[in-house]
């Protein structure tokens, strides 16, 4: 009999998703992940497009549940970035960003939550960003608002789950060396230049995945994986967000 804990990673084909898979396998989890439909599938991976209807998302998750089962740990590490001033952002890019970064993750959690509650156990963890608690980069108002939404949603959900045996938490990493610019929409070239300018100080994905997993058993709901991310947030609390 396989007594391994099961983990499902939404966004498993990204840099952080792959880091989570490696970290979880080292911790003896059985891991399943999802990839976007235009990415290459690997073993124990399933296609999931968060920029699709609730019905299509539910169908994809039903396939995962039937084949893999209900996970003990659900990690949402998917995401996209929209880099453009608001007045230059198309409605298509706006909708895509909110679907992938906010609405899609909420739908995934909504699908699995009844099974967690019935079982009276399970951990839900969502990776937001430092942009989810402070305006971090200009020309990213849509991305930032989606990340703020994730933080607010999970912190509120966590209070709903008190006493159920199910936990929810959200992390706000600082800069991570990921392939986010490659998947960005809008002015991708400017975002790539930003990463080239500041990316040397960013953290490796496996460092972030390990630090997040270390904190999941704690009572924290809002998680800052690194001291630099926590300090960045605390330092900016004292600053006005206007010019």
SSE layout and pairing:
Blueprint: E1 6-10, H1 15-26, E2 30-35, E3 45-47, H2 54-68, E4 73-76, E5 82-83, H3 91-119, E6 122-127, H4 141-160, E7 166-171, E8 185-186, H5 188-198, H6 205-215, E9 222-223, H7 227-237
Parallel strand pairs: 1-2, 1-4, 2-3, 4-6, 5-8, 6-7, 7-9
Helix pairs in contact: 1-6, 2-3, 3-4
Could you characterize what this model shows?
The protein is α/β, with parallel strands linked by helices and 243 residues long. It has one domain (6-236): 3-Layer(aba) Sandwich (Rossmann fold). Helix content is 45%, strand content 15%. It is built from seven helices and nine strands; from the N terminus they run βαββαββαβαββααβα. α1 crosses α6 and α2 (54-68) packs parallel to α3. The N and C termini lie far apart (61 Å). The mean pLDDT is 90.
Helical segment count: 7
Q: How many β-strand stretches? A: 9
In order across it, which strands form the biggest sheet? 3-2-1-4-6-7-9
User: Strand pairing plus helix content: what structural class?
Assistant: alpha/beta
> What general outline do the C-alpha atoms trace?
globular
- How many domains? 1
The radius of gyration is: 17 Å
Which regions are unreliable across 5 or more consecutive residues at pLDDT < 50? Answer: none
**Helix and strand element order:** EHEEHEEHEHEEHHEH
CATH class (first level) name: Alpha Beta
CATH architecture group name: 3-Layer(aba) Sandwich
Overall helicity: 40-55%
Name the CATH superfamily classification. NAD(P)-binding Rossmann-like Domain
């Amino acid at each position: 009999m396989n007594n391994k804990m099961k983990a499902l990673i939404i966004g498993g084909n990204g840099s952080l998703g792959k880091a989570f898979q490696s970290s979880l396998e080292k911790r003896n989890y059985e891991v399943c992940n999802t990839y976007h439909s235009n990415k290459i599938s690997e073993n124990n991976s399933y296609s999931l497009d968060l920029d699709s209807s609730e019905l299509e998302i539910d169908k994809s998750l039903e396939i995962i549940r039937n084949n893999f089962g209900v996970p003990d740990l659900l990690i949402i590490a998917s995401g996209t970035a929209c880099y453009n001033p608001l007045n230059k952002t198309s409605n298509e890019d706006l909708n895509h960003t909110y679907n992938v970064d906010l609405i899609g993750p909420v739908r995934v959690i909504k699908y699995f939550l009844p099974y967690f509650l019935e079982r009276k156990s399970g951990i839900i963890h969502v990776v937001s960003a430092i942009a989810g608690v402070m305006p971090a980069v200009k020309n990213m108002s849509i991305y930032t608002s989606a990340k703020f939404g994730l933080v607010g949603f999970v912190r509120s959900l966590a209070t709903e789950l008190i006493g159920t045996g199910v936990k929810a938490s959200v992390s706000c990493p600082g800069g991570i060396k990921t392939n986010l610019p490659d998947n960005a929409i809008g002015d991708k070239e400017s975002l790539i230049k930003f990463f080239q300018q500041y990316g040397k100080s960013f953290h490796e994905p496996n460092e972030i995945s390990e630090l997040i997993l270390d904190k999941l058993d704690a009572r924290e709901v809002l998680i800052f994986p690194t001291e630099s991310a926590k300090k960045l947030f605390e330092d900016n609390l004292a600053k006005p967000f206007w010019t």
